[in-house]
Amino acid sequence: MPKLIDLTGQRFGSWTVLYRDPEDYIPNTDNYQKHSQWVCRCDCGRVATVLGSNLRQGHSKGCVYCHNKKRAETWVKYHDAARRYMAEHPEQYA
Q1: Up-side HSE of residue 89: CA atoms within 13 Å toward CB?
Q2: Cβ of 35: how many Cβ atoms within 10 Å?
Q3: pLDDT exceeds 80 at position 12
Q4: Domain residue limits, the chain
Q5: Closest among 41, 37, 12, 7 to 22, alpha carbons compared
Q6: Distance set, CA 11 to CA 30, 32, 40, 60, 62 (Å)
């Protein structure tokens, strides 16, 4: 069995690892497999349990609320730019 890597105090994207979750069993089809799960705090203050492998491999960089907020901000920037372009080039859209 591989040696446990202590992630306490480390940062992964917006996550800061607080401590290892003592109940780190995830149900699998016929049995329970042990996976290291860590309790993390996002920069926005939300706390969640995240798989250690997802943290180390970069699959989880922050909570879903912050992710959705960033997506919405990107969408607004894109559509503002599109509106400005259409206003500057009305002949293309007549």
Answers
A1: 7
A2: 14
A3: yes
A4: 1-61, 63-94
A5: 37
A6: 34, 28, 9, 11, 10
- What Cα–Cα distance (Å) separates residue 15 from each residue in 34, 42, 48, 54, 69? 22, 5, 9, 11, 16
Q: Decide: 67 and 49 in contact? Cβ < 8 Å.
A: no
* Reported pTM: 0.63
Helix (H) or strand (E) holding 50: strand 47-51
Q: What pLDDT score does 30 carry?
A: 56
- Dig out the tokens for 14 from the structure: 């917006």
pLDDT in tens, 13-72: 889 999 998 876 666 555 555 678 899 999 888 899 998 888 999 888 888 777 777 777
CA 10 to chain centre: 15
Question: What's the CA gap between 67 and 61, in Å, rounded?
Answer: 9
The owner of tokens 């894109």 is: 78
DSSP state of 62: S
